[in-house]
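ARCHIVE CARD
Drawer: 12
Card no.: 0347
Subject: one protein chain, sequence and derived structure
Cross-reference: see card 0346
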Amino acid sequence: MPVDEKQIVVTIADLEVRLLTPAAREESGDRISFWWGVTSAAVALAGHLTRLGELRNDLVVDLGCGLGLAGITAGLLGASVTFTDYMPEALEFARKNCVLNGMDINRSRFLELDWENPGDIGGFTMAIGSEIAYDYFTHSALIKLMELLTAPEGRIILAERKRLAVSRFVGRLRNRGFSSSETKYRIDNPDLPRQEITLFTIERADQ
């Protein structure tokens, strides 16, 4: 592997997900991005997916996929996964990491996605994301995107630290006809901050 890359292993339930990670990058000039790190929220989301069991009938879209941990976990559980990120380099690493973990690359897609201009995308049974709702500036675009992405019977699973901005984001989704439930996880990993992460499962209220 190139000298500016290293490989780490993240244990998710019975899975060992291998990830190539780059050297730290400078922040993007117009978007906040920490795509090259593994966060407590991403670990919590991946762990939550394993508790759902097999996902062989699911079409999953990973929003702000970064290195791909949650999407790869979904893929190893049988889902077809579309990895999306605003940063092309993140998608390159997500693709490398899919191959590294033996995923069928023909059942995966890698899409550069601008939430404000998403284009023709939709029909997923599950949308997932970690630490994507912390910025008020993105809320309007992200809400419209989630309405576009998910089929009527689809669900959205978000892993977030429960900041005020996140609570207001979920509240706005409820006002748009969604219901939500919460599950809390505390991540006790010596390599990660000790944080309580809330998993929000969001569905259309008329299901």
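Annotation on reverse: The chain has one domain: 5-204. The chain has five helices and nine strands.
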